[in-house]
Design brief:
5 strands, zinc-finger, 5-stranded mixed beta sheet, alpha+beta, zinc, metal-binding
């Protein structure tokens, strides 16, 4: 992530937290400047409520499970299991996050995350091989 985006994104997310449930226009414009089409794709994921936080019961450990077009992807602040993360974020440095990561941080900031408590065993299973379908 470049220095500009790394400094601006947390500020934009804090502005979203100040207006729960929506994204102010000025923040939306700034996000579009940074993410372009990735923002549009992330907003589509949000519209479909496809962001779930998997939280291990009794621990602070969690990750996001985000439904993409063809599969579910595990997302953390600095990693996503989707192919675009490796190609666009890591290899080509085109954007600071993939659409799944962006959808997860926006959903969290807006308070639109579905919560799913899981056991230690379930969490390990998700992390080692995400299932094609989530109940």
């Amino acid at each position: 992530m470049n220095t500009f985006a790394g400094a601006v994104i947390p500020v934009l997310l804090s502005k979203i937290r100040e207006t729960p449930g929506s994204i102010p226009d000025d923040v939306l414009y700034s996000l579009y400047y940074i993410f372009k089409q990735t923002l549009v794709q992330a907003l589509e994921i949000l519209d479909q409520s496809h962001v779930t936080r998997l939280s291990v019961t009794g621990t602070p450990r969690s990750c996001f499970l985000v439904q993409g077009k063809n599969s579910h992807y595990l997302t953390y602040s600095h990693y996503c299991s989707c192919p675009s993360f490796m190609y666009s974020v890591i290899s080509r440095l085109e954007v600071p996050m993939c659409k799944h990561q962006l959808a997860a941080v926006l959903a969290e900031a807006m308070g639109h995350v579905q919560e799913r408590p899981v056991s230690e065993e379930e969490f390990v299973q998700f992390v080692s091989s995400p299932p094609p379908e989530v109940a």
